[in-house]
Specification:
This protein is α/β, with parallel strands linked by helices. 53% of the residues lie in helices and 13% in strands. The chain is built from 11 helices and 5 strands. The N and C termini lie far apart (46 Å).
Length: 220
């Protein structure tokens, strides 16, 4: 009996040494497979469109097209895009914030150890959660462009949708939200879709960013 297919990963970083190190770490795991590499953002977009990986580890500062624009192009150009994890040297970085606004699932520091790297790839590939929500919250607090007044969508959220958005921001998956709210997974999925529609966002990361910028999650 065969197990699940390995998680297919693309590495995008302009430093060959970094890509080599990441490949060595990930290739040592039976359930992970590095299927491609890119040295620029433009190459990353092309490689992802060709290979359709599950996860992309994306450096934000690359020549030609940076990781932010590459993230936007990948997520906008594919019906079922991969989960994108920003790999960065500095966590309190406006580049990282902009990548999250573009739809990256989270970020990982280049100084993270091998276990953290492997765990991050598995987490974003196998679940619908955000990566490191507490760190994302701190990043947003430092870079968010706050709204002068709450946008109209805040008042349009139902009580259930508001609860779902807060739990999304806490990093819970749909299954975990369902257990917390004592409802079915399908109900949570419907609430998440409604939250995205009302906030005018494409994915969970953008919805959480919008929630912080609007002041909806102030104090959370």
């Amino acid at each position: 009996m065969t197990g699940p297919a390995p998680i297919r990963v693309v590495l995008a970083d302009d430093e060959r040494m970094v890509r080599t190190a990441l490949r060595a770490i990930l290739s040592a795991e039976a359930d992970l497979e590095v299927v491609g590499e890119a040295a620029t953002g433009a190459e990353a977009v092309a490689v992802v469109r060709e290979l359709r990986p599950d996860v992309v580890l994306m450096d934000v500062r690359m020549p030609e097209t940076d990781g932010i624009r590459a993230t936007e192009q990948i997520l906008a150009g594919l019906e079922e895009p991969p989960r994108i994890v920003v790999v960065t040297t500095f966590e309190n970085d406006s580049y990282v914030y902009d990548a999250l606004r573009a739809g990256a699932a989270g970020f990982l520091l280049k100084r993270a150890d091998a276990d953290a790297l492997v765990g991050a790839v598995r987490l974003v590939a196998r679940s619908d959660t955000l990566l490191f929500p507490a760190a994302v919250r701190a990043l947003v607090a430092g870079h968010a462009r706050a709204c002068p007044a709450p946008p109209a969508w805040v008042a349009r959220l139902t009580g259930r949708e508001s609860e779902v958005l807060r739990l999304m921001a806490a990093g819970l998956t749909n299954a975990e939200i369902a257990r917390r709210m004592e409802v079915g997974a399908a109900t949570v999925k419907t609430h998440v879709a409604s939250v995205l529609a009302k906030t005018g966002t494409r994915d969970r990361t953008q919805a959480v960013i919008a929630a912080y910028e609007s002041g909806f999650l102030r104090g959370v």
